[in-house]
Amino acid sequence: MEKMSPSKETMQQLRQPSKWLRIFYMVLFAIAYSIAEIILTIIIIIQVILNLLTGTINERLRQFSSELSLYVYDTLRFLTYNTEDKPFPLSDWKKVEKTSR
């Protein structure tokens, strides 16, 4: 039985530092995404409780969750190879203009 060895092209790809650096960033941003997901879940729970008890929502939390949602979107785009632009903190935090609901 013949042993399968990696081709020269595959070996060249594996030796590229840029590939390994991107994977390193992907691991870091996957962790950041998981943390952001937990924070968004907590905000959702707080907003639901506030709405049930007071009939209103916290505007600061709404604004922050809107910006955090953009961060999650940017992170997922990077993780799925849809962009090479790295999310915050390696780029600017995207602000959302205050809007009335």
Automatic annotation (TrEMBL):
Domain of life per record: Bacteria
Keywords assigned by UniProt, alphabetized: Membrane, Transmembrane, Transmembrane helix
Any Pfam family: DUF4389
Transmembrane segments: 20-53
Protein name: Lipase
